[in-house]
Write a structure and sequence with these properties.
With about 180 residues, this protein is α+β, with helices and mostly antiparallel strands. Helix content is about 45%, strand content about 15%.
Amino acid sequence: MNEIQDDPLSRSREHMIPQALLRKKRTKGDFEFWACKECNSDKSDMDSILATVAKSQSDDTDLATNAFIRAVEDRGSQSRFLEMIRTAKETQDGSISLKIPVSGAEMAKYCNYLGKGAYFLKKGSPMQDSKHIVLFDVFNNYVAKELEIRYQMTWGRNAYRDLESNPNARVISPGEAIMWMRN
């Protein structure tokens, strides 16, 4: 990577976990590293889409509604979110179920990028695809809350406080963490 402006191999500062996904303001330098500009730009589109999906699950109805309004008004993601809204179905418990506006391949590519970023931050060198794999699980706020409750009932402790002492995890804010495994 170089510092030549508009060069395909130029670098840009990567915010591995984008501010758009967080509930609290990130501190400067927190979870950042240099990445190639092309990869970083490619990831930023997914950052925006996934931030909207995350905010749509909020108990704060203004936050959820405003995230959807902005997404539908954005020409770049408009069709994805209009299709997502069209898939809305009421469930037996009265909640609304929507199809996520991201393909499995797009999610896998995004999570692989995050896994490689976590490896780079931890090791200071690029991850080698021939030696490492990235496994990912994606779940929503309701699943996370249920896991937190079960952890509390089983262990009598807060899951996120326990994660803070784990050298292979980084808690960004309550309910938001990234974890990795050795080898």
